[in-house]
Amino acid sequence: MHRVAALLVFSTICMAQTIQFSEARKVWLITTAHSSYAMGVDGQGELQHLYWGGPLWRIDDVPAAVEKHEISSFDPHQMYENEEYPGWGGPRYYEPALKVRRADGDRDLVLHYVSHAARGDELDITLKDIRDDIEAVLHYRVYPETGVIARWSTIRNGTKQAITIESAQSATWYMPRGNGYRLSYLSGRWAAETQLNREPIHEGMKVLESRLGESGHNLNPWFAIDPGDADEQHGRVWFGALAWSGNWRFSVEQTPYQQVRVTGGFNTFDFSYVLKPGEQIETPEFYGGFSQNGFGEASRLMADLERAHIAPHGLQARLRPVLYNSWEATEFNVTETGQKELAAKAAKLGVELFVVDDGWFGKRNNDHAGLGDWVVNPQKFPHGLNSLIEYVNQLGMDFGLWVEPEMVNPDSDLYRAHPDWVMNFPGRPRSELRNQLVLNLARDEVRDYIFSALDNLASSYHIKYFKWDMNRVFSEPGWPEAASAEQKELWVKYVWNYYDILRRLREKYPGLEIESCSGGGGRVDLGVLRYVDEFWTSDNTEAFDRLGIQEGFSQAYAARFMSAWVTDVPNTNHRSTPLEYRFLVAMQGALGVGANLNKWTQEDFDLATKMIALYKQIRGTVQNGDLYRLLSPRTNDVAANQYVSKDGQKAVLFAFRHAQQYSTPAPAIRLRGLEARAVYRLESTDGKLLDEQAEMSGAYLMQNGLHLQLEDDYDSTAVVLQRLP
Ligand code: GLA
After folding, report:
1. Is the CB of 402 under 6 A from ligand 1?
2. What is the distance in A from the centroid of ligand 1 to the CA of 358?
């Protein structure tokens, strides 16, 4: 159903309330324009999941939760197959949402309903162990425009003894019972992040996770599940994403009774968290949504949610500026004169934010020294950093600075002063990766040191933007200063302190912007998105590879958060593509230039100036509009994406050809998301639009499509559409 039509149905149904409750039958029904979600309490007090799918409006239609009985002594688990938030206890065998150990070794936990409280679009349901005062409060926050529900839980120890949490999950999500489901997920590695995978779900369990300390390059905390027949435009798709930047885990299970369930939250691997009497722990938010209109709408709903409710400043956020960064051009060879020279050239292109990357501080001439010493290198900047910043500002650009605050090189003043600040197991080797060690940010003195280092930079210099990097994963995650039973809490407390620093920085410097980078896309998740304006998508900036990385990224994250640079060729993978192609690929996100401008020809400058000016015209549509993935680079030799502005007035089509064969003409590209009855004016950016009419109806554009002259390998073009009054 079209979005407007869905909203119409919704308003005709006219749910006065998003969350309804039937006292008599103990059923909750959450309804939005896109989806409904229901659960209920059975006669024993067990909270059961009852429904998740397209919108319902009548709570009486939803059957009440009924107690289930044993069918076979070998299959008692069917009884608990749809428990909304299962504790590990009684005859339960699936992945539990909560597992605890008491001081005396007792690990049985059976959670039953106690009470609930609804406020507007939020609902809390409290469950308690059948004997002990151990509670799980299940939180639901509904975002009516998207139908997405945020679920998380607070676990409380009301007993008089400490308990150890062995697993604390945010939520278990259930698909309607059935066979033949398919899982979509994003996997990859450094320089090849967010590759889209689709595979059948079979009986048993598939685990998606990170054990790296960060959300990670290998798997991204996002999933989608469809009945096996969805495509970009059609079919039912359930999707979810976890807001956590540390070790996370999704277990995707299909039971012998064809029940597919996804349980996600803190990774259980090496996890343990002690709750003393009266203490509580909150799990990260796990967002879940549903679309009846395929993977395309699922991504658009996620993008809407992120822009409006997760990222800083919500819908008031400014458009992402065009950025220049010299990392690929100069690497560590950063100098005041060199940066000024590049800044002057960048400003002429129309760049708005000039970022100095790694190499400006301490004894940072290569990656062997300096991390931890966040003071300006006097040899490289004999007049201090301010001289460069003022120059950059006079050129009309904002100034940004690279930092990697969680890390330390053993060759640094910080490490010499505080060798105990890194995570370590005493007396055992400290594995260096990229010659660096990880500070134990779970420790509050380390958190305070990092905050003050960044605070000092932000207050001493006119800095608009930090690129916050993290260039290695954890190893030897020891915390010798903590009590032995609490040392594994490092995994969680590290991330909380990381968020705390980001939150405090943003509060103190409201105009400051931050990019989340981790050697590329190692820290791309909804947890850190609450505090950052952009993600560094990948260290791989090669344009054709990027089409695949960006296709995966766009499943889960909006284009405005996707940093995308134009860099030099041949790129690290030895491929060379034309400059226009590189620009058009990067213009589908937050555009940046990372090329060595000292090597550019006048022709390059002219084209780049034109492309940046064009980007400024269309970036509102790209960054804040709706994305339609028309042709995938995975399956076609033409890849195409279209962005439509929220008011429907503008659209832009990007198309790429990578490996033409036998001079076969490119297929007509059928557009989407337009108004059939409206007429649009078309403007080709480079004359490769073969259709002669300058104006066409939405109907023709969507039914017949556009003909583009994409003849060569790595050919590309864009068409800008403006709706006529
Ligand atoms: C990481 C980042 C790069 C660059 C280098 C600097 O690899 O992803 O963009 O900042 O660090 O060392």
Report:
1. yes
2. 7
